[in-house]
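Internal tracking record. Fields below are filled automatically when a chain is submitted to the structure queue. Please do not edit lines marked as system-generated. If the sequence contains nonstandard residues, flag them in the REMARKS field before resubmitting.
Queue: standard
Priority: normal
Entity type: single polypeptide chain
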Amino acid sequence: MFTGIITELGTVTALEHQPERDSARLTIHAPASVTDLPLGGSIAVNGTCLTATAIATDAATVPDSTGTTAPAGSVVVEVIGESLRRTSLGDLAAGGRVNLERCMPASGRFDGHIVQGHVDGTGTIAKIEVHGSWRLIRVALPAGLGRYVAEKGSIAVDGVSLTVTAVNTPGAGGSAPGGHGGSDGGSDGGIDAGDDWFEIGVIPATLAQTTLGARTVGDRVNLEVDVVAKYAARLTDYDRAADATGSQSGNESGNESGNESGNQSGSRPGSQPGNQSGEAAR
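SYSTEM-GENERATED OUTPUT FOLLOWS
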């Protein structure tokens, strides 16, 4: 488990796509993160929990994903097809920077929020407003994730724990409640944010210590929504499905009982005297 507090900016030295294995091999120079990282240990790369399969320390070197020797202080991770499809890791190239976080120790502080490293999908940066030393960033959400994002809730963007400052009205798209019509320092422009989006305020320290400071409009970012929201929504879905099944069963039972009762009443012998009596009175 992670908390979304980035501890190092690593540098990609190689990315080898292996389509025959539906995976890729990623090598990252990350001297601060590999100091005591064991083989099989977990490390979050742009918010994606990955397993260290090879480590190059000062005392040992390993071949990187291109077959050459990785520089000391490097880690090699395998990225399977599911992660490639759910994240932006497949877009990385040598020289690119990535956010890194080691898994949280049991004695560690919870400085961010619960981050599993299980990316739900990628969003697109739709707008950046520059406010002096900090920035307001709007991210367009992929279909299906909007229900899990709430104003003043938490979200991990490329592994960075951030507070949601605004969200769209469900089904409305457009601008945020109250609007953010202007900026006091300029803007990187904007693109259509789609139906669902959220905004975050990014402080100078986060801009400097993570990849968010170099992001531009149109960039893809990895998103992990609040796990508590996902479980709550899943439970609600099951409850609704159970209620719908019970209601349908009750309606079918009621219809059958009513139809049977009506049919039997219409054919009872007790209805015959009325008819006969009517005939006698003619």
